[in-house]
Every structure is written in C-alpha cells, then in structure tokens.
Design brief:
The structure holds two protein chains of two kinds. Chain A is an alpha+beta fold. Chain A is built from 23 helices and 18 strands. The longest helix of chain A has 35 residues. Classes of the chains: A alpha+beta, B alpha/beta.
Chain lengths: 696, 584
C-alpha cells in the first residue's frame, strides 16, 4: 500500500537556501555541498505501477509505405493509405507483388537513388531494370524500388532489417548523402565542443565528428551484415559522388570564423584581393590570394574553392578535385543544415571497411575520377549538389550492374560491354526537371549563372513548361502561404512537378516565404522572349502584393531579406536577426507615384565607436554610399529618408555593409549564447527591426 | 513608460504591453506558433505587442516576469522534481529565464520577477475597477503557493496567507480530470461540463482526498496523488478508493464518471465558498477578485457570488497563467511609477492582432476564393448573416482584434442559432469533434440579457453561469441543469458583433447567438486570416466571415485544398504533455 509521501516541512528552508546559493553570481560550493547532504534521496515512484491510459497502437507490418497483405496465401505489399502524405517520397508503385521465379534485386537508398527531379517518369530503378534484363548474366531480374527521398540513416536501418521479408536475391544500397544531416545536432549536443575548439580549432571538432561517424558506420554495417549478408543476401553499396565543380559553398558556409589575432582580417583582405584579381582573370593572383585565405583559415571552404578555380583554369583536374572535395567536407562545419553530401571521411571508411562486412562497394568518386580525366563532375552529370542528370544516372547504373554481375557470378565484366538502356525521359520531363533544378539551386544559395543555365535548358527542352513557370512565379510572389495559393493548387493538380517531392517541397508558410526575386527575374526575362508581357505581369503583381504604403512594411520578413532556405540552424531562434555576413541585402518594392520612403532600422554591432568604423548603406547596388550610420553596441534606432530619385518602381535593393574590426570577440558580450556555432562564427550585427513606409 | 509582461516555461506562455499604465495589447504565444498551450518564451507575442505600439525593444523600460525563478527552484528542490543531490547541480539553471529574455528576446534592460500568485492577484485586482477588494487566487502551483488570500486597496495589494504545494485545489481538479480520461490543463473544463449529468455520490470519497484545515488552509492526502514523483497525476490508491480504473481517453463515458465529476465539482464549490467566507471575514470588504486557473471554473464562480458573502465579483478573463503576464506587468508599473493602473474596470479583452480588409482580400484573391464583398455595407452583411443563421447555418466569425485569454468572445468565434435543437450535435459533428455532453455558450445583447437569463449585471467574459429564464426555447445553449455560461455584448466593446446580434434579433426576435471558439479540437483558436481560412476549409462550417467578406461554402469547392492542407506542416501540435503537469 502506498503511503502518503511529502517531503519534510523542515527541508523547505534547506531548499530555499540552496536555491539562493545556486542563483548567486558566485556559488559558495562548500555550503552548497553541506546543504545537498541534508536533502533526502529523490522520492522513488512506484515502480510496479503502470498507468492505464491508452492502449499503444499496434505497429503495422510495413516496409516503407507498403503494408503487408496476405492474398490467397501470398504476401503482397500494398501502399498504406494512412501514409499517403509520404507517398511522393517513394516509388510510385501501388502494389509490390509476391516474388516469382525472377531474380529480385532490391534498391534501397536516398533521393539520389530515387531519381530526384525525374522520378516517377525515369529513375535509377528503371535504368537498372532495363540494363539487367538486357545483359546476359542478369536476365529475368526484377528491381523492387524501395529508395526514399530524404531517407535518414535510422530509417535505412529499418529498411535493411525488414526488406529481407521481400526475399531479395541481392540488395543495392545507394546512400550516404544524408548521413551528415545529424551533424548540427551532434555539434549542438556536445558539451565539450567549445573546449575542444579552443584546443585545436576546428581540427578537434572534425576529429570528434569522425569518431562519431566511425560508430555510426560500424553500427550500420553490422546491421547490414546481420540482416542480409549473414542470411546469404549479397549487398552492393554505392558511394555517392558530388557536383564538385558547380555546387559551391554559400554565404553562410563561408562566413567568417572567430580566429586568433588578425587572422580574420587577413582572410577578409585576401578574399577581397581574390575577388579583384578574378575580375582581371589574373589566375596567378587568384592562386596567391586563395593560398593566403587557406593559410589564415584552413577550414573555410571558400579559399579552397578559389584555389580549385585556378587549377580548373589551368586544367589541373586532379588538384582541382582535391581542393573541391576538401571544400565540400568543410561546409559541414559551418552552422547550417548542409545540403546532402557524402563526407570524405565516410567515403574513405566505406572503401576501407565495407569489404570486412562482406559488402561490395561501387566507389563513384573513384569511378568519375577515372572517367573524367580531363574534367571534374559538373552540371552535365548533376542537376544540383548530388542528384544526377540522366547522363549521370546512366553511367552510375552501368557500374552498379557491373558490380551486381560480379557479386552474382564472380566475373568482373568489362564496363564497355554493359550498355546503357534505351530509356529516355520525354522533353517535357527533361524540361520540368531543369526547371525544378533551377528552383532548387536558387533556394540553396547558388549563382544566378547556374539558375540561368537550368532555366534555359528547361525552355530549350520544351516550352510547354511555361505555364508551370508562370504559376510558380505567381505563388512565390504572393504573401499568402503557398498551400493556400490557387496557382500552387493548379501546379499540384497539373502533376508535372511531382518530380520535385510531389511539388510539396515548394510549400512555405507565409512567414518563411521567399520572393525569389533573382530566379523570378531570370524566368520572366527568358519567358518574355517567347511570350512578351510576362515581366510586366510579375512587376504588377509584386507591386500589388508588396508595394510599400503606410503602414510600414517589415523588411525582416523573409520575402525581403532571404534568398534561400539555408539557415544558421544551430543558433537559437530569437527575436532579432543575426547578421553573419559583411553585407546584408534587402529588397523593397516601390509603388508608382511614390515620392519618398522612410526607413527605420534598430540594430547593434559588436564593434564600437572606438573601432573607428561606420556602417554604410547603399541603394540599388550603386557605388555611392547613400548613408553612413554609426556603430553601436547598444540597440540603436536610426531613420533615413530615401527620395524617389534614388529608386525606381518595382523591386529595389538596399545593402548594408557592416564594418569588420579585429576586436570582434567583443561580440561575446552581446551574445553569450553557449551554442558552439554562435561562439565560433562571427556576427557582424544584429537587427531588431527594419521597416519602411511611404511618406509625402 | 512601457512595461512588457511575460508568462512562460510552464504552459500558456503570453506577453502583454502596458503603456503609461494602460493595457495596450496581449496575446498568447500559441496563437502565433500554432502549438497548443505553447510554453516557450513568447517571442512572437512580444513582436506583436511591439509592432502594435510602434515600439522597438530599446523602448521597453522593464520586462516583468510572472514568477520568481529562485523561489520556484526552491520548491522544485524540496519536492525532489529536480532529482537527488548528486545531479542537482547539473540540473539547475537559475538564470535560465533571464538568459532567455536577454538572448532570445534581445532585451538588455530591467527585468523584474513578480511572484506567481501576486501576478494572478494583480491581474485581477488592478483591472477590476474596485477601489478595494479581497483577492483570492487559486491554481495548480506557482512558486510555493497554490492558493493565496489577500486584499487590494488603491495601488497596493497585500497577500496575507497562502496554501503551499503540494496542497492544491488546481492539482486536485487536474488529477480527477486525468482520472476521468481528459487531458491535464485542457480537460478541466470538460469535467465541469460533465458534472451536471451526475449525482454527488462520491462526496465522501472526495473528502478523503482533501481535508479542510484552519483559516485558509486545506491539505491533500498525498497517498492518492503521484504528481510529485510519478508519470501520472494520481496514484494507484485512487483506483482502490473509487473501485474503478482510469477511464481511457475516448473510452466509454458511464454514469460513474459523471457522478465523480459532479462530486468533484461539489467539493470544489464547498471549499471555495468556505474559504471565501474566511477571506471575507479577514478583509471585511464586499468586493472579491478572483484569478488563477481554478477561477476559470465559471460554475464555481457563480456559486461563490450567489452563496458566499461577497456582493461583487471580478474574475480576470485570462485567469490562467497567460493572465499572469498582465499581472506581472501591472505590478512592475505600480512599483516603478507609484501610480495606479489607468485602465479602470477591464471592459474587453480584444487585445490581440487585427487584420485589415485589404489583407483579407489579398488572401482571398491569392486563393481564388469566391466571396461577397460587403465593404462599407456592414449592415447588409449582418442582415444576410442573420438570415443564414436563422436558416440553421453555422458561421465562422473573424473580426478585428483577437481576444486575449482562453475564451472566444466574438472576435474569433463560431456562431449559430441557439434555438435550433439540433445545433449542438451539428456543430460538434462539423467542427468541434468534441464530447457531446459539453454545452455551448450564448452571447446576448447586454441590454437584453436580463430578459433571457437570471443575470442582473454585465458578463462580458463568459465567466459566470446563470439560469436560463427566457421565454424562447434555447436548447443549443442551455445545459442539462438549465444553466448557461453567458457572454453579454454592447456597442462600445464589440460593435460588429452587437450589429449582428441586433440584425439577428430583428430577423428572429432572438437577441442571442450560440458562440463557441473558432478552432478545431486540439488546435489553438485561429489568429490570422490564413488560420481562419484553413480551419474553415478543413471543417464543414457553412460560412466564413472575415472583416467585410462573406465566404459561402456552397460558392466554393474546397475539396482539393482540403487535401493539400493535409500536407501543411504549419498545423498545430500540442505544446505540453497531458498525462501530468511537469513541475520543472
């Protein structure tokens, strides 16, 4: 029988004193320890009591989104209606039939295995199926496609364990790009990380990460071994490749780090130098500047990327590859959720260790290095960072088949004897794929040049994509959450953008929407050439949706300051904007007839007046400083009037150039967050509010 | 003088702004994040308050927090909720609240901590309009106190006695709520609604749970409770006492459950009346101010006024922890200026954000929704709606500034004809998906209230129940015991709803409408036009009225949009666990 439990009244004064001492700026640890001894052990809840509240839901017998159904004594897997929301992440297959006399290959993997941007019209599974059945050694084979877009490693574990129920003869696992997605959480949760960082900078952090990855990889391979290899199901593991040449770190990823002495300033100067000499096509100058950047901050990807550009210019492909692979891995430590990529450490570990578990690997980076003796992977092989173009899928699939044959027969067939399939997506599918790629590149901080490339490719393949582009431009420009925009509904009903996570990856809440100014400008200009009037239509819509009147427009809304979805995810959500680049760019939309605009900015900076520098404001990318305002470590509000002769109707931009001073570590005083990232990566300013309204 | 008040980190986080002694704005964080009962620091609500007053963070003179973290930690240490001595040092973070205010809200200025129950007391007394009053606060727990007795005079509030944790009327009520299969913190209201269906057959058993003591004191028998240490509110002894296991959520509702609810309600009323007599004796004043979560029990409030010694009663409409933000800010204002709060008697709680007709129109245009534009023709809008309502239509009503507090009071409401005997079931089926036994509330023109309800004073906040005495048959808002939870409306505080009620009276002779909150089960009340449209689309409500626009379901096909909303990640989630209060 449970007795009445309540702590002794007499202990209240102990608790009160303890609380006071614990709250004091300087803790009296002797007295605290003395008081702690007076506390009784924590009350022991009734261990044998189980609350009777709800019956736990019975776990469904599913693999992926397919639920096991026994029909006439045979096991079918049918798509589970209760998981309809996830269907577009998986193969568009309603029923996975019982195994027949055909050899069954199961494909597991992430979006790269899904055929992202082409699926369901064309994908890796279809290409494999076709090649396997047209190759003598592997005729009469079926491919069960269990690849899933955005597959986390935990779910891959589950699939590896459960797919045995489908009686595979061989399993292909094409994964590794998503395995770094937990890195931000790892950095955030590691309490010793700041101490590690102080010891040996990011090198220590990298070592910690690699140690963690070793456990993750070993654990995964153990699961593969016990679930498949030990049950005599061979496994081919495909190590992904990255779009080394055309996917570059974004502003967030090459932000300035907190380094000792003058190194950040030196790095910045070298960066400015590199930018200047690049304009003159001075390759040697670029190389020197890049070397300097690397010397000052070895862990910043930008220096390595610039150095790679010099090697590319000189056609020194191997050197370029080394630099870009290094830069790709460094982007993982820059504070955001990096776009998927297979870390170099993971690749190295897999090539060295997979065999020990009985797993055969297809090392795509090695394959492409050999194949592209006079180039490195770029936009021809990839549509974005890791998702292959049709050309890429066809190459990769041949090598996977080569490995399958070798595993099944013990013979390594010459790759030239393995022919790609005749499958080819229609021009309409190709067109939509490039359009989706343009959006994806834009949303993850890539250059206007690559957006233009994909937009142009899209329209070159088929102009039928124009209505889709117009709908996109419409709903992305509107203030309303995407899901409520009629044009988005039309896109979903249309169905062509199913290739882009069912189109649902485009949904954004009103508070997170981007106006996509750069992308929409590129799209409308290109469409205008085929269909005049598009640019004007967008111009009018922007003015009606975002045109500045009175009351004020909040320029901190994502429409006006965000160009992409990359976020500094590690730092806490807070009520003000933390500026982590030296230039902040805002868009504002001017209505016709506007005489003047009043801006009001509340900000603070880590640098103070004694640093002898100022904040400079520019309007519409002119070289003329429109206004200088003082730095201030306390929240300061400044207002300034912009007359109409400085602006034009429609989209305008305002850039704030924040000063850098060597004493940036003062920042700790205004932002004492214990987050690793906030401590390590510089904040140049914080903006509490920034608004604009029409006057006169 | 700009004072921000904040409540957070337990449940119902909220923020308010008192500017020069006037309450300007207040909102719960859940309305912005769409996380039900969101306990996180109310950053969005603060942004709203600043924007509403055209201020920025540097204009704030003080942030007042609704409890004292140090005192709270002392209680947590004592109760053992932070663990034993060995891990206490690592588990305590005494500066957590301040760090959140500095780092998340970006505030560098003065932070004041106001005791939890003082915050509740101030939220009621300073806004009651009384020059002097007894002040009675009752909730689950604050720092140490669970119930306090005090008095207010002018700008001074004095608390002279408190009942300390774990003896708590709020936790007693929540424990039985949980035992009856409802969620803690949001199911207490259901128990109150269930009570009239039962008989007080378990009074004697209830008396074993709580024992009355001298003066303001009472004591729980902790062998029946497990909220100090366990994963549930109750201990297994409670099953032995009632000889019945816990009712499962959505399980069968038997007469036993109704009788337990009734017994609990009777005990609560007994305790409150007895203790209010004690408070009256100690203070000798005729006015009573109530606050704290238990003060949301409008049935008990009515009994206190009717059967107790006080002549006038004021209940803070946001009596729960959200209202603590207002009280904390008010205390800080009085301390810093030595002046009274200027608001007088709180006449309304339309303190949240509003959205212009232009903004609504942008939404409807983007969504290509068919609508009727009644700009500058609000009389026609009301006439049209009155007709629809009289024909049995259910209307979602979104107008002007959102209410602060847990009740919809005609700014974010669902409205219907109270004379329709099928209306309760209809609304439950089409939108609320809630327990059929729960009554809906009426909203009535203030000047006509006495003709239909046994009510001799305005009731703008739906915090009292009274008997229905109307000549009209009002089955949709009359509870099984003939009572109703009335809200009265006048032109000064809600012109638009007043106009609609007037139009409905002209059309039907009935100046009353059924009024329930504009949300679906498990989600916060809608805040923005987008929330309203989404809620409308995913329910079967006949008509949505937003500002000057009428959207008829029959004029639109939302079938595909409803499907799309299934993918909307912005839909609501629960912010707190419902099995037990977390005392951390």
């Amino acid at each position: 029988m449970k007795m009445e439990f309540r702590p002794a009244e007499a202990l209240k004064h102990v608790a009160t004193e303890l609380s006071t001492l614990l709250s004091a700026p300087k803790r009296d640890m002797d007295r605290i320890q003395q008081l702690l001894k007076e506390l009784p052990p924590a009350p022991d809840p009734d261990k044998d009591y189980k609350p009777i509240t709800t019956t736990p839901a019975q776990k469904k017998n599913t693999i992926g989104v397919w639920e096991k159904k026994v029909v006439n004594g045979q096991v079918h897997y049918r798509r589970d209606l209760s998981r309809e929301k996830d269907w577009t992440l998986w193969a568009n297959v309603q029923n996975i039939y019982p195994k027949t006399s055909r050899r069954r290959v199961i494909l597991l993997g992430e979006s790269v295995a899904r055929g992202y941007f082409y699926d369901p019209h064309y994908n890796v599974a279809a290409e494999l199926l076709s090649i396997l059945n047209s190759t003598a050694e592997t005729k009469n084979t079926e491919v069960v496609d269990l690849a899933r877009t955005g597959l986390p490693i935990e779910e891959l574990h589950e699939l590896v364990k459960s797919c045995i129920d489908m009686e595979p003869d061989l399993v292909v696992i094409f994964a590794g790009n998503n395995w770094t997605q937990n890195l931000p959480n790892l950095l955030r949760s590691n309490k010793n990380i700041i101490d590690d960082f102080r010891k040996d900078g990011l090198k220590s952090v990298q070592a910690m990460v690699e140690e963690n990855f070793t456990k993750v990889l070993d654990n995964f391979m153990q699961v593969v071994k016990t679930s498949l290899i030990d049950k005599h199901v061979p496994v081919v593991f495909v190590i992904p490749e990255f779009n080394l040449k055309d996917w570059r770190s974004d502003e967030l990823e090459h932000g300035l780090m907190l380094l000792a002495e003058n190194r950040p300033l030196n790095w910045l100067n070298a960066k400015f130098k590199a930018e200047n000499v690049r304009r003159n096509n001075d390759i040697a100058g670029m190389e020197n500047a890049a070397m300097e950047m690397i010397k000052e901050d070895h862990f910043n990807p930008l220096g390595h990327e610039i150095l790679a550009d010099t090697y590319i210019a000189r056609k020194e492909w191997k050197k370029a590859r080394v630099c870009l692979e290094y830069a790709k891995d460094l982007a993982l430590f820059r504070g955001g959720f990096p776009v998927p990529r297979c870390n170099g450490f993971v690749k190295k570990w897999l090539t060295a260790n997979a065999g020990k578990y009985g797993v055969t690997t297809v090392d795509l980076p090695a394959i492409f290095q050999e194949l592209l003796s006079d180039s490195i992977p770029d936009r021809h092989l990839f549509l974005d960072y890791c998702h292959f173009s049709v050309e890429g899928i066809k190459i990769v699939s041949r090598y996977i088949v080569q490995a399958i044959i070798e595993v099944l027969t013990g013979i390594k067939k010459n790759i030239n004897d393995i022919k790609e399939s005749d499958l080819s997506p229609s021009p309409e599918v190709m067109s939509v794929a490039h359009f989706a790629a343009a959006i994806h590149n834009a949303h993850y901080g890539q250059s206007a040049e690559i957006m233009q490339y994909h937009c142009r490719k899209s329209l070159d393949h088929s102009s039928s994509v124009i209505d889709l582009m117009e709908n996109f431009m419409d709903f992305t420009t509107r203030r309303v959450s995407t899901v409520l925009c009629k044009k988005f509904e039309e896109v979903i009903i249309d169905g062509r953008l199913r290739v882009y996570e069912g189109g649902f990856s485009l949904t954004q809440k009103s508070s997170q929407k981007l106006m996509d100014v750069e992308l929409v400008d590129i799209l409308s200009e290109q469409i205008d050439q085929l269909q005049p009037g598009t640019t004007q239509k967008i111009h009018d819509l922007r003015i009606s949706e975002h045109g500045i009147e009175d009351p004020p427009v909040d320029l901190l809304e994502s429409f006006y300051y965000s160009a992409g979805h990359t976020r500094f995810t590690l730092s806490k959500q807070c009520n003000f904007l933390k500026i982590r680049s030296l230039v902040s760019r805002f868009f504002f939309i001017v209505k016709p007839g506007t005489k003047a605009l009043q801006f009001e900015l509340t900000y603070r900076t880590p640098v103070t007046a004694e640093d002898n520098c100022a904040i400079k404001i520019y309007i519409n990318n002119t070289d003329r400083v429109f206004k200088e305002i003082a730095v201030s470590k306390d929240w300061t509000t400044t207002t300034f009037l912009v007359q109409s002769d400085n602006t034009h109707d429609g989209v305008n931009s305002l850039s704030i150039h924040w000063p850098y001073a060597a004493s940036l570590d003062k920042l700790k005083r205004i932002n004492s967050s214990d987050s690793f990232i906030d401590t390590v990566y510089s904040i140049f300013a914080e903006i509490y509010s920034f608004s604009v309204y029409q006057v006169g | 003088m700009n004072i921000v008040g904040i409540s957070a980190f337990f449940h119902d986080a909220a923020c308010c702004l008192i500017q020069d002694g006037i309450l300007k704005s207040a909102a719960e964080e859940e309305r912005f994040t769409r996380i039900k009962a969101d306990p996180s620091i109310p950053g969005n609500a603060l942004k709203y308050c600043l924007r509403e007053a055209n201020l920025t963070i540097k204009d704030i003179d003080c942030i007042a927090y609704y409890e004292d973290p140090q005192k709270k930690m002392a209680r947590q240490i004592w109760s053992g909720v932070l663990g034993n001595a060995s891990n206490l040092l690592s588990k305590t973070d005494p500066r957590y609240v301040e760090r959140q205010i500095r780092e998340v809200l970006g505030y560098n200025g003065l932070v004041k901590y106001v005791d939890h129950h003082m915050s509740h007391a101030a939220s009621s007394f300073y806004f009651s309009g009384f020059e002097e009053a007894a002040v009675f606060t009752i909730d689950g727990v604050g720092e140490w106190a669970t119930t306090t007795y005090g008095s207010g005079r002018g700008k001074k509030i004095e608390i002279f006695e408190e009942v300390q944790f774990p003896d708590s009327l709020g936790l007693l009520y929540s424990t039985i709520t949980s035992y009856l299969g409802f969620g803690v913190n949001d199911g207490e209201y259901k128990v109150m609604g269930l009570a009239p269906y039962g008989q007080p057959l378990y009074i004697d058993k209830m008396r074993q749970l709580i024992q009355m003591e001298q003066e303001g004191q009472f004591r729980l028998n902790m062998k029946y409770f497990d909220f100090l240490t366990g994963n549930t509110m109750y201990s297994p002894c409670l099953f032995d006492l009632f000889e019945q296991p816990v009712r499962k959520e959505n399980g069968e509702m038997t007469q036993f459950h109704k009788d337990v609810a009734k017994s609990l309600q009777v005990i609560l009323e007994e305790v409150l009346i007895e203790k209010s007599r004690y408070l009256h004796k100690k203070t000798g004043v005729t006015n009573l101010c109530l606050a704290g979560g238990v003060a949301l029990n409008c049935v008990a409030n009515g009994k206190i006024l009717k059967n107790g010694p006080f002549e006038q009663l004021f209940v803070q409409p946001a009596a729960n922890d959200a209202g603590g933000a207002i009280g904390a800010a008010a205390v800080a204002y009085v301390e810093l200026t030595d002046q009274k709060i200027n608001s007088g008697k709180l006449s309304h709680v339309y303190l949240g954000p509003s959205y212009s007709s232009a903004e609504v129109k942008k939404l409807l245009t983007a969504a290509e929704v068919n609508y009727i534009d009644c700009s500058n023709r609000f009389d026609l809008l009301c006439q049209r709606l009155a007709k629809s309502l009289s024909e049995g239509k259910v209307i979602a009503w979104f107008q002007e500034r959102m209410e602060f507090g847990p009740r919809s009071l005609g700014a974010r409401s669902i409205l219907a004809d109270p004379r329709n005997k099928d209306m309760r079931d209809r609304i439950n089926a089409m939108v609320k998906k809630r327990e059929g036994f729960r009554p809906f509330a009426p909203v009535v023109i203030e000047s006509k209230a006495a003709d239909h309800f046994d009510l001799d004073h305005p009731s703008p906040f739906m915090l009292e129940t009274c008997q229905v005495i109307s000549a009209l048959d009002l089955p949709a808002i009359t509870h099984v015991d003939g009572s109703a939870r009335v809200q009265t409306v006048n032109q000064q505080t809600n012109q638009r709803l007043y106009d609609l009620l007037t139009a409905f009276e002209q059309a039907t002779g009935c100046p009353i409408l059924l009024n329930t909150s504009f949300n679906v089960k498990g989600e916060p009340i809608v805040c923005t036009p987008e929330d309203a449209l989404k809620c409308f689309i995913t329910t079967d409500i006949d008509c949505l009225v937003m500002q000057d626009f009428i959207i008829e379901r029959t004029d639109n096909n939302f079938e595909f949009l409803e499907y799309l909303l299934m993918f909307d990640t912005a839909r609501s989630v629960q912010g707190i666990t419902h099995d037990v209060y977390t005392f951390i």
